[in-house]
Amino acid sequence: MSFNTNTVQRDGHVDWTYPGGAKYIGEVYEGIPNGYGMYIFQNGDIYVGQWREGKPNGYGVTTSPDGTKHVGEYKNGEPSGPGVLTLPDGRKFEGTFRDNDICGYGSMTLPSGEKLRGLFVEGEFIAVGVDKVR
User: Fold this and answer.
1) Which of 38, 63, 76, 119 sits CB 3.0–4.6 Å from 48 for a disulfide?
2) What order do you get walking across the sheet with 46-52 strand by strand?
3) Whole-prediction pTM value?
4) Average pLDDT, rounded, for the chain
5) Which residues are CB-neighbours of 19 under 8 A, at least 6 positions away?
6) CB within 8 A of 48, min separation 6: which ones?
């Protein structure tokens, strides 16, 4: 994401379309997204949530055309902190993210209903417990 700080409107609410089709609708301060807004990426991903200094920071939701959805905290544009990631194949992770990676204690529910609980390191599951959900 890059933002043109030489735009006509530098403060308030804007509706900007960028070359290539990306779009930002929301609050800006000094020509940079700050506050609440929505960014539609060229690939069809959509982020709706809090912004600080031109990046997603705070609570937000990202959805992708393939059905991937992340709901939770963002830091410097990446999922970081508590969140829920739902994948198109039906898997659902609930736990902590760090720099866009699943990290720390959490649970992964599989399409079969099986629930894996334990420690995740850089997106990899380290088995601690497995629950059969009926």
Assistant:
1) 38
2) 12-17, 23-29, 32-40, 46-52, 55-63, 69-75, 78-86, 92-98, 101-109, 115-121, 124-131
3) 0.86
4) 88
5) none
6) 37, 38, 60, 61
